Amino acid sequence: MGRIQLESVSKMYGNTQAIEDVDLDIADGEFLVLLGPSGCGKSTLLRLVAGLIQPSSGRILLDGNDITAAPPRSRDLAMVFQSYALYPHLTVAKNIGFPLRSRRFSRTAIADSVAAVAATLDLSELLGRRPAELSGGQRQRVALARAMVRDPGAFLMDEPLSNLDAKLRSATRTELIELHRRIGATFVYVTHDQVEAMTMATRIALMDNGRIEQVGTPAELYDTPRSTFVAGFLGAPPMNLFDATVTESRGELHAVAPGVNIPLGIEADSHPEHPIVVGIRPEKMQVVDTHAHVEAVVTTVENLGSEELIHIRAGSNPLCIRAPRPSNTEPGAPVAVSVRPEDVHLFDRDSGRRLMWTPENTPARTGTPLFVA
């Protein structure tokens, strides 16, 4: 079992709030990724779970047992560090078996366990080598094997792929996904790389300034971001975000900004103007000949091989379109863009929170129709 629960966990360093009132329930067997920019608190949160630092308040539970004050060695958790932390003077076999030797397992039991884990991670032929003789990917697998040999309740991984080159990082990502599928253990994985998070996670907890902005599947965070932070962080290129105003025209609501007039597919007899932030994914904007919702000028075109990124300017707003190549657009040329109402995301301009349309006379709210966060 490997269910991890954090209940109102906070961490203070003097007057600095590193982690603020985090509630998180990590199910047994899931691959949860803690994602966010540098300094957001994701590694601190992982170290709190591991017991390397103590929370200022709140509780941490493992399979229902309170481990908040338990030392790291007493927690049924295995940590894989960014640096791998292998012993350079020991062979691969002795590095893998070290946790069992420290627990005074017999030589036979250690040898059997090391052999089994090495076979799982394709390390059997490397058992006699030392870390200096291994590639980065091989060292990463040795670090994983050392964690696996303990048969822990959960694996905690702090940016374990950041030291690998792009090709090896991609291959190792695939290995980790397959390993998780095969052993079914709980993985808690820290990264600032959204590609790692989107491809590996069963759920993502996206953090900012010590708080969790949103928790959900990769699809949920990408398709229905709860804030402009989530919308702007996920995606390469990120979601287009710009200020606009909701106005009523001929019984329908429109998002209007310089060069932009997008119908929202919402009927309304009357509606006061409402300032908002509009969000549109680059791949949801299509260059058209007629019925344009965005009138703009092309500023730059980036060739990505099978696709192009078309950078445009509508009024003073820079926007980006992801389109199949060739798009037949040129810098300096006018361009007409179409957007479907269902592909438009609306956010409150002050709080940055996602807006929901609440028509009048519904159980949610009565009175004048409003957008509510």
Q: How would you characterize this protein structure?
A:
By secondary structure, the protein is α+β, with helices and mostly antiparallel strands. The chain folds into 2 domains: 4-226, P-loop containing nucleotide triphosphate hydrolases (Rossmann fold, 3-Layer(aba) Sandwich); 240-372, OB fold (Dihydrolipoamide Acetyltransferase, E2P), CATH 2.40.50.140. The chain has helices spanning 42-50, 92-102, 107-120, 136-148, 166-183, 194-200, 218-223, 228-233; strands at residues 4-13, 16-26, 31-35, 57-62, 65-66, 77-80, 154-158, 186-191, 203-208, 211-216, 240-249, 252-257, 260-267, 274-280, 286-288, 294-303, 307-314, 317-324, 334-338, 345-348, 356-358, 370-372. The protein has a 6-stranded mixed beta sheet with strand order 6-7-8-3-9-10, with helices on both faces. It has a 5-stranded antiparallel beta sheet with strand order 13-12-11-14-20. Strands 15-19-16-17-18 form a 5-stranded antiparallel beta sheet, with no helix packed on it. The longest helix has 18 residues, at 166-183. The radius of gyration is 25 Å and the shape is elongated. The relative contact order is 0.11.
